[in-house]
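Bit of a strange request maybe. I'm writing a small parser for structure token strings and I need a real example to test against, not something I typed by hand. Could someone generate the tokens for this chain?
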Amino acid sequence: MGAKRDDILKLAQNGEERLLLSHLLDKQRQAEQYMQPVGTYFLDLHQQNLCRRAMQAARVTRYDLQGGFEGAERRCALFLPDYMEDAAMLQPEDLPFVALRVGNTAPRALTHRDYLGALMGLGIRREMAGDILVKEGGADLLVMGDIAPFVLQNLDKAGSAAVTCDRIPMDQLEVPQVKVKILRDTVPSLRLDAVLTVAFSLSRGDAADCILRGLVQVYGSEMLKPDRPVEQGARIALRGKGKAILAQVGGQSKKGRTMIEVHKLI
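Reply from user aminoacidic:
Good idea to test on real output. This should exercise your parser:
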């Protein structure tokens, strides 16, 4: 049996996190009660991590975090009814979000900021939009399904350029290829400062100093403890140096060190 609701809410560090945890638990209960998939709005990396911790405490396994494509940064929590073993059983119509394609003929290339600003200019809250995939001549957007008709009708400008907007099937999303540098090494333990030395070519002392100065985030949350354990899949950001993912944790070397593979975004 998992932790009780009141115990799970104690994971929150502030009122905003408490509201999020309450929202997650309500959605999970709705999926059980109404026997259908139920999703949240888009969560950032910090909120996703809080969701994972809460579901682990509640011993909830029938849920998934999805953002429309592999590697999405912003994701919705999707809670599954008992008859669904895993998220592979979800159909496109079960998802709480849809994909839109924005096109333009602007003389200059529009940026992520241009498209996000256009959405915010329509009064759309950030949690109602997922990742924005910028490409030549336009961008693909993920937005919550209940605001999609409004966006389709009203999104006609980004930056200073006129744009078009159409709905597309999720499998037609054009995802830019993410370039990574693969780094393999061994560490004495999976402490944050040790992983940071591999990801950003730092000395152990410099890594610890960066953490203590508040320059390091894991899953979008500031980390101030060099000895904080890091698990496989963790997304790490070092201000001014970039982002990296602890992609794989392997076995032990002959000297008792842990083998890891880090993907540094370039």
